[in-house]
């Protein structure tokens, strides 16, 4: 029942926000998101670290056809539920200094998005998963397309059509799998795991799923929508996209591709790893050349997700575990970084790192937080990024030494573009834009402090998260190796 | 067959009501009549399937469900005709009467047991449509559309009748079960039978505007007054597909191996022609015309598969499509400031929706839900319609056709979203838009139906 609450609370809060006056909307939205966070924490505490599905609910939906409105939380879901619950209030809080027109609609859409994301991460019925997977797209599309930058209309349109196009292939695959189940058919995800299709069919289904998830993440060469969309969207929408929505793709890989099409993965897994690693290197190299801070972080996000995908496709315990922990870490870091970009932009009206510099002298708080998040992002030991990247690289290395070696370049390249970002924007001589730069306000610190705490918590004691996911991941991997 | 009788009587009553000076009574009376007919349609819901009129017409839950959709659509559209009475050159009584009479034709197409009944039904519906298309008498486009529709339609009807004659010649029966038993007993049917079947199907496919018999659709939809465009694109289509389904399932299922390739080719062609051409339209109404062609493609997809899921799929899809289409045309009529049957030329481009989100949030929301449903995005009825169609196709094992359908769905999103983008993201003229009460009622109802079926698709299945 707790799971159902996780889906319904933001939905109801969103409806509540929608009907309130614009000037009360953000406070109300924050309260709704905090209640959701409290519930997520309850789930976190009560969760028993084993491979079972917990806090489940199940109602007939198209019951005669074996399709149910059902959800539950296992270790893999739990991390992402926590991530969604943790980041949404911070994303709402991050907008407090920035007035948005039609605020009640704006905040309602954020909450609707959260509801759909919770649904994606907890659904145990394949069609319910698909429904939420698509439904999550609608609020974020409107957030980006209505409140976004200059070229928002074309850019977000491309994003929408691209991602829906991908998910339609997943729909075909799901319908096909559904009709392969025995008897009166069922769309329960765990019963899809038991199908043993022949290798050729699995190959087709592998690609149908892969295209859907690869577009969402994005993996090379399906990434062309991503930098523009991240740049043109208003920052809260970018945070939702990069911080949480991107994880839907990785989650899908773990939840669907690994257990359902192991033979397809055996045939095509290497190709997928190569694509992921190409994306990772390619994204890093482009990130090094960016001047726009938001675009730079967008490409860094593209690079990071490439490593996560490669880790999942390695089908090793450390690869999948690394992907899970890295999803959490990346969500936290990228939201923090996008927020810092927004802070700088709101004060200087520029995101061009050539025009910035000399901010550090008068802004001790901002500098410290920026450094912490940056170090987390470049995977310095004792920060959250290190744990994830280490496990991911270990996983890839175990599958293929050469791929592991190439993927390892990410650490070097990541350090290059992130250090360049911090150095050019924060240090050096003052520019006309940064003349009167004020340090963080209270609400801004209230966003960054929890993020910084998480960076260290996950870096110092990753086991508090790893131990939750390990039984579920082991269980999943056993299904692959028959 | 109470509804058919009632519809005929009510049609005449409406004609006589037209003699009165005040035209204000016509709309409520027609709506009331339609409600009575709707209720009478479901009177025998729980009875066993039965035959009427010397075994010429047939009634079971399926035909009642289709009739229900048709009558409901008609009611919603009639409620959108408020402007009729204000237009001095219009003849509201005749329009209402023709609409009611045309429903008789639609119901005969849905419930036919004998091919003659199918023919009569098609003719009643088509002739009514020819008249209604040309009802904007002073508008050149409307006249042209009516003439075009009539000439092409008459030709198609001729082919259809020829097909029926050939079928009669080979099977010596007009009865669909008679034809079915002919197919069952003759392992190698005569060539005459095959030709007759194809000609009959071609005639029917013309009526539902499947490619390559679709060329009349954009001009006719564009030229006709919007309210009758809505009538055409929902009622004619639903009745047409019900009739084709009953033909294929009731008579020709034994010859599946013969016709499925033909129908598959037509389906693919329809999907491609409808979706790809819709992308290039600047007029919203013409886009809706091509969209109706593309939806014909999805319905044909399910018919080509003809699996156990097809029946549910077609019923659900027709309902989802009709409701969303009525929403879209309703909003268009309000935004384009059409009164009754008159329309100025070229005011129906996508630009009319510019800034609608500010001018009237309700209308913008209605339009959005309708476009999402037509595009088949989850949380709307249209998604489950597509889902069921896809299911029926997968069940038959025609997965390759799905790939085309999926690609075309993605193309569909492109043109449906243009309306949404215009409504929310483009600047339009200032000033709010007043929505008359009847319109508000209809549009809210269609939107709610779309969302409810989008969340709980099982409701319909538990009914049918």
Structure, described:
The complex is a heterodimer of chains A (482) and B (464). Chain A contains 19 helices and two strands. With 482 residues, chain A is mainly α. Chain A has a two-stranded antiparallel sheet with strand order 1-2. Chain B has one domain (2-463). Chain B is built from 19 helices and two strands. Chain B has helices at 2-17, 26-41, 61-79, 92-111, 115-133, 140-171, 176-185, 191-207, 216-223, 226-252, 256-279, 284-305, 310-335, 356-359, 361-375, 381-396, 399-425, 437-455, 458-463, and strands at 50-52, 57-59. Chain B has a two-stranded antiparallel sheet with strand order 1-2. The two termini of chain B are 19 Å apart. The model of chain B has no long low-confidence stretch (mean pLDDT 88). At the A-B interface, strand 1, helix 5, helix 6 and helix 7 of A face helix 16 and helix 17 of B.
pLDDT < 50 stretches of chain B: none
Which consecutive residue ranges of chain A, at least 5 long each, have pLDDT under 50? none
The separation of the N and C termini of chain A measures 33 Å
**Radius of gyration computed on alpha carbons of chain A:** 21 Å
What is the string of helix and strand elements of chain A? HHEEHHHHHHHHHHHHHHHHH
- Count of individual beta strands of chain A: 2
In spatial order, strands of the major sheet of chain A run 1-2
Number of domains of chain B: 1
